[in-house]
Amino acid sequence: MGFAIKINPADWRRQLFQGLKGAVADKKRAFATLTVALATFLFSIFSANPAYSVQMLSSGIQYWGIAFTTRLTGLIMNTGYAGLMLTASFSVLVGVTMTNTVIQLKMNRVDLSSLGAIPGFIAGGCASCGVGVMSLLGFGGVLASMPFGGNLLRLGGVLLLVVLITRTGNPETCSI
User: Fold this and answer.
1) Is residue 57 part of a domain?
2) Which of 19, 57, 116, 155 is most buried, judging by how many CB atoms fall within 10 Å of its CB?
3) pLDDT-derived band of residue 126, with 50, 70 and 90 as boundaries?
């Protein structure tokens, strides 16, 4: 049994554009997309060093800016601006994916309170964000030994989300 990606090679740009456009079609969707993207970006930044982040964030609101600046500077110093751009791209694509998933669930009259929808959200957010998750699990040394400071893993996550968005296209016309 093989794995096949069903993407029309002649039409992939239009499908990707429709998937991206569907997530920001109105103000409510754009706000939801940006909120999830910001939360994902902050999670990715702070999860690189969880002990430091928890200590700084729990010390008081006056330390939040310092904690963010320190972690962002650490990301740039370790992975360069390429790592920063890949992390930001990944965060935006997670926001688009989550918004499109909610749209599809609502359009197909799936009850969001059911527990059956939760694994889809977790898998969409964690399957390709390995950099933050591996750090949270204590595998920071694995990231240090990866070529390009983990940027290939970040690029893989971005590409997986682009394929997912391209494959689903417009969330209003795609069925689950």
Assistant:
1) no
2) 19
3) very low
Whether residue 62 lies inside any domain: the answer is: no
Q: 137: Cβ–Cβ under 8 A, 6 or more apart, which residues?
A: none
Cα separation, 168 vs 176, whole angstroms = 9
Residue 152 lies in domain: 12-44+81-168
CB distance 151 to 85 below 8 Å: no
Is residue 125 scored above 80 in pLDDT? no
Query: Is 6 domain-assigned?
Result: no
Give the integer Cα–Cα distance in Å for 14 and 46: 35
**Per-chain mean pLDDT for the chain:** 76
Question: How far is the C-alpha of 118 from the C-alpha of 128, rounded, in Å?
Answer: 17
More confident residue, 88 or 9: 88
Give me Rg for the CA atoms of the chain.
Answer: 17
The owner of tokens 């591996």 is 134
Count of structural domains within the chain: 1
**Integer Cα distance of 33 and 92 in angstroms:** 7
Q: Which amino acid is at 25?
A: A
